[in-house]
Amino acid sequence: MSADRADPGRARGEDWWSTEIIEMRPGMIRLRGYPIESLIGRVSFPAMIWLMLRGELPSAAQADLLGAALGAAVDHGPQAPSIAIARMAATCGVGINSAMASAINVLGDVHGGAGEQALALFGEIAADMDAGTALAHAVAAGLERRMPDGSGYVPGFGHRFHPVDPRAPRLLALAREAARAGVVGGRFADIAEALEGAIAARKGKPIPLNIDGATAVIYGELGFPPALTRGLFVLSRSVGILAHAWEQSQQDARNKGPLPREWLWSYRGPGPRDLPGR
Amino acid sequence: MSADRADPGRARGEDWWSTEIIEMRPGMIRLRGYPIESLIGRVSFPAMIWLMLRGELPSAAQADLLGAALGAAVDHGPQAPSIAIARMAATCGVGINSAMASAINVLGDVHGGAGEQALALFGEIAADMDAGTALAHAVAAGLERRMPDGSGYVPGFGHRFHPVDPRAPRLLALAREAARAGVVGGRFADIAEALEGAIAARKGKPIPLNIDGATAVIYGELGFPPALTRGLFVLSRSVGILAHAWEQSQQDARNKGPLPREWLWSYRGPGPRDLPGR
Amino acid sequence: MSADRADPGRARGEDWWSTEIIEMRPGMIRLRGYPIESLIGRVSFPAMIWLMLRGELPSAAQADLLGAALGAAVDHGPQAPSIAIARMAATCGVGINSAMASAINVLGDVHGGAGEQALALFGEIAADMDAGTALAHAVAAGLERRMPDGSGYVPGFGHRFHPVDPRAPRLLALAREAARAGVVGGRFADIAEALEGAIAARKGKPIPLNIDGATAVIYGELGFPPALTRGLFVLSRSVGILAHAWEQSQQDARNKGPLPREWLWSYRGPGPRDLPGR
Amino acid sequence: MSADRADPGRARGEDWWSTEIIEMRPGMIRLRGYPIESLIGRVSFPAMIWLMLRGELPSAAQADLLGAALGAAVDHGPQAPSIAIARMAATCGVGINSAMASAINVLGDVHGGAGEQALALFGEIAADMDAGTALAHAVAAGLERRMPDGSGYVPGFGHRFHPVDPRAPRLLALAREAARAGVVGGRFADIAEALEGAIAARKGKPIPLNIDGATAVIYGELGFPPALTRGLFVLSRSVGILAHAWEQSQQDARNKGPLPREWLWSYRGPGPRDLPGR
After folding, report:
1. Residues C150 and C218 in one domain
2. CB–CB of A104 and D101 under 8 A?
């Protein structure tokens, strides 16, 4: 408590910004109670992320699994709005931080929220199981809420572009491996696989687990709440956003637009007209 | 002064955020000293913008001229990165304010800074004239600094796309009209025209005044400093950014990318390879 | 249609970015069909905003009423997160556009969405009236949905700080005046006043119309849909955001924090600890 | 190359977005040539960051050193504008990605650029040494450019708050250790220490290496160019930004301002006044 507590105004101001994350005095920085110099070089970057978000250090195996999920979603190419925005922004005369911010900002409910929604669904099913429902029944009930008439979208499954998203089976295998090693429980992997089977049965065709569903499995196994899933995705995709902003900035484009410079856009509004008599 | 000055901490905290712009007490809001209810409906929106930025109210004619310049630069179509970003962001599941923020954020030195740079140049020339240099000589000296070897870019002149930007002559005519009516002095219009002539003589072809140069003339005539020119451009372009974000949001696109959905991008990196032995 | 339609790829690319807002060819810019040089200096800035968002020009009286609402919400002081963020950002070494973007970005559901929610409520009540329900009954039904047990929050009414928000009665008076002059219909003003009365009766104390409710009345009278209300608020508050960013940038602060520089924050996390044995 | 090269428009559009970073086909994702499923779980998160930015995989020791630097700068508490903005934004009704974007956006030249500037200085000195100048002379010349009259600011040294920044000596020790192990060359550590000594001699008091200087040493040793230093800082600080946004969002604040809710700000503008007669 740094305030001069004899000055109630200062104490009130300092309390307004209270936190459990970081403590500082001149020459001293502690994160969650650990002196920062004792952390640097001793815990991995994913372990630092975990400590900052959760308050306690993970085991090395937990940190590695987190790092694998973070590494899996770094990029999906310039057709993704976030990546395209990073590249265009990098040609507009702003710092690389601002190019990244414009891009990160669009990782919203549609572009960045599927993992959060998938983990929320997995969590509902897990809660049903905690209350005594069998996996198959809990999955069926969860699907019923998402696909009441057999159609509808289940977050974490299916991909517009990839018949099978190559990241998903690999991540699921890592989750299974971690479960076998006792690092995680394995329940979210079970739920995801049961969902995949049940969706295929309902749809009559495979709608496989995608990257959002697969990272949700891992984040859920590791105990992260759904809302943090989007935050973790931001940390992950920021890497691709930076890489693309950087690559673009090494070229000499100015005000890069979405289409080749000599193209325009189709205009479909009203034809030429005069101002009403005034 | 609202703080209980007997509490030095509170007073220090409140002083930390002191401003000359707005005063508030419960039931009272004053902008630059004017009760807000006396401003609403009595001064135009451009006059409010002026009051907020400059501290005093403009004349009606000054406010109209400011409004004309603000209205001129609202849009330049979806090939502009700012507009494209607004449209893509609107499909990503963020609020319309966030779609606008991602777009406004890229109005940087390259995409939004030409007006500021043009007005800085005009101001250098005006300062030379204040020191007794004739217009033609001051213009020549200013150009010499920008085009030492006859080539180079002069901010506010020339356009990649428009042989003549249709907004520029119209804005210049408004500035001339305002000068004839005594609303402004007319010096920045003189400087811009002299620059246009001198650039054409140096280049051997016309490089006409563009929208950035023309709005810089008006903002300069009205007494705005160069750095505010970019801020005014943001207010102006925000209108087009909002219009495009809104139009896009009325359609059903999800995660709109820069190219048609069935297209990819060209990959030019290394061919397929295996991880080094590990 | 600018594409060389003999090149199907180019046509497909140009159609991907089609719009009804702006048409361009070299030397030609048309907004909603009007040549831009015919608009500049002939229609006010609020009329340009209207044209861009709605597709048609407003009457002068409609544009003035829009301008009054836009002018009313420009600022609410540095305690508002948007304004504080603009000021802090201005000290961090980013362009004024980026300082504005960081601030505009937080005008979300809580900070910028009350007007949208208020107009949605007004619209529900208006729709009930269209279906034959009397004003008082439609208002009661609307309130019942928002305050089922007599408590709850009604968007557009009440203010944490102002017993009566001085902007609201002034804006409502302007709406009434415009209704008397036949500029608008007056129905949303009726609905807002009826709501105010009914809320007071339920709560046993006045919970007066606030700035969000009052601007929603005007935007609704003028025919804007609820979702655009937030966009209009962004245009309005951007003025205050720019003014504060500008004022701050004229001072010499670097990395301005929320509290006086010599203060810290209260730390409430775990006490000092050693890394677990590793 | 995915385009139907018989369609020149499509090929032109796809080339407009060409990249060396990522290749995709349905069911296939390769980063820098490596199938993504071969990377996931086999390379650490810092190694993925390196691969994306540099095009080649680092050694495990290089990746660990990068991770240590990334972990060191994750947070500096709520007095930093970036952290304060993240917390305020989290109370305004925007997604966690948007809260992060508003914060990341302010890591500009002043708040996020010192590492870049420090590495640029180290690089100038290294280039002098490559040209045959001895370390001490190259350092003296570099300082002369930054502190021509013995005063002035040298990026990477000194701290407003910490007499000695506890992160810097720890990072420098890691760089030394890596140099002894042959992972890096050690030259930037030499330069930083020589600068520290020379600054102290000029100033007559110690101005020790700070976090920006220490991370610049490591990023320089690892071969990153100065401009990427800011991008790496963004990746690092994003962790603290997320942690604070998340902590704040778990509380129930709405529109959190910079000061306690019952405080205002000091107003220092003109006193109350009437509109000029109109």
Report:
1. yes
2. yes
Shortest Cα distance, chain A CAs vs residue B15, angstroms = 12
Q: What pLDDT sits at residue C44?
A: 98
A111 has a chain B CB within 8 A of its CB? yes
Return the DSSP state at C161: S
Residue D80 in contact with residue C255, Cβ under 8 Å?
Answer: yes
**Cβ–Cβ below 8 Å for C97 and B260:** no
Identify from B82, B85, B100, B247 which residue to disrupt to test chain A contact, counting A C-beta atoms within 10 A and taking the largest count. Answer: B85
Q: What is the ipTM of this complex?
A: 0.96
B256 within a domain of the structure (yes/no): no
Measure the CA angle with vertex B173, ends B167 and B176; round to 5°. Answer: 140
Statement: residue D4 has pLDDT above 70: no
Question: Could you say which residues of chain C have pLDDT below 50?
Answer: 1-3
Percent of chain A topping pLDDT 70: 98
Backbone angles phi and psi of A19, in degrees to 5: -155, 155
Residue C3 lies in a domain: no
- Condensed to tens digits (0 to 9), the pLDDT of residues A153-166 reads 899 999 889 999 99
**pLDDT for the residue numbered D1:** 43
- d(CA C15, CA C10) in angstroms, rounded, equals 8
Cα-to-chain-centroid distance, residue A147: 24
**Full residue range of the structural domain in which residue C38 is found:** 19-58
Q: How many contacts does A have with D, using Cβ atoms within 8 A? A: 267
CA distances (Å), B274 to each of A254, D22, D25, D51, D237, in order? Answer: 36, 15, 18, 14, 33
Per-residue pLDDT band for A83 (boundaries 50, 70, 90) equals: very high
CA distance B24 to B1: 10
Q: What pLDDT sits at residue A147?
A: 82
Question: How much is the pTM?
Answer: 0.97
| Mean pLDDT, chain A, integer | 95
The pLDDT, as a whole number, for residue C112 is: 93
* Closest C-alpha to D217, from D250, D171, D177, D260: D171
Chain C hits for B238, Cβ within 8 Å: 234-235, 238
Q: Nearest CA to A62 among A190, A213, A175, A228?
A: A175
Q: Are residues A95 and A142 in the same domain?
A: no
Partners of C85 on chain D (C-beta within 8 Å) are: 85, 88-89, 102
Based on the fold, state whether residues C219 and C119 are members of the same structural domain: yes
Q: Is A104 on the interface with B (CB under 8 A)?
A: no
CB-based contact A239 D98, cutoff 8 Å: no
Report d(CA B150, CA B148) in Å as an integer. Answer: 6
Residue A261 lies in a domain: no
- What single-letter DSSP state applies at residue B57? P
| Nearest Cα residue to C46 out of C221, C249, C266, C219 | C219
Within this chain, do residues A36 and A129 fall inside the same structural domain, yes or no? no
> Quick check: C24 and B244 CB within 8 A?
no
Same domain? B100 vs B157: no
Chain D residue closest to A25 (CA)?
D162
pLDDT of D82 > 50? The answer is: yes
How far is C192 from C199, CA to CA, in rounded Å? 10
Residue tagged 């009345």 (tokens): C217
**Chain D CB contacts of A36 below 8 Å:** 72, 166-167, 170
Separation between Cα atoms, residue C20 and residue A277, nearest integer Å: 23
pLDDT in tens, B73-111: 999 999 999 999 999 999 999 999 999 999 999 999 999
Q: Dump pLDDT digits (tens) for A129-182.
A: 999 999 999 999 999 988 887 777 899 999 889 999 999 999 999 999 999 999
pLDDT digits (tens, 9 = 90+) for A40-52: 999 999 999 999 9
- What angle do the packed helices C60-72 and B45-54 form, to 10 degrees? 30
The Cα of A94 is separated from the nearest Cα of chain B by a number of Å equal to 5
